[in-house]
Design brief:
Elements: H1 17-21, E1 38-43, E2 49-55, H2 57-61, E3 65-69, E4 100-101, E5 107-113, H3 116-123, E6 127-132, H4 139-143
Antiparallel strand pairs: 1-5, 2-4, 2-6, 3-5
Length: 148
Amino acid sequence: MSEKFEVVGASERKVDGLALVTGRPVFAGDLDLPGTLHIALLTSPHAHARVRRLDPGAAARLPGVALVLTHENTPSTRFTTAGQGYPEPSPYDARMFDPKVRFVGDRVAAVAAESPALARAALGLIKVDYEVLDPVLSLDAALAPGPR
């Protein structure tokens, strides 16, 4: 069977190529809509720790900050991070914010504010006291009884 390919091995003109190289398309990051809030995330500097105390008060009181989210004021609904389709066999074991962080960069809090700069500045006002935990580096240690 000899099929004639029309695209494989041939140059195809990109439909939006001219517009892209001339800077005409508008992307979501280009929009400045009135009332838009900007989000910044506070992430963990520790690979394994518990959040002992978290004080978002100063950040929440900053003019222009609409909301500060933490494990204390968000649902404990669990989801999977696997990203597979139905049926999803992976464990539903992650929360939006959890009082335990499991990697450097794990989410601790989010700030919604009137500007990106204000949201980032508010992050610096959130006080977090961590109890740094020992890493679990083997299957035996993970299966051992007791808290981790």
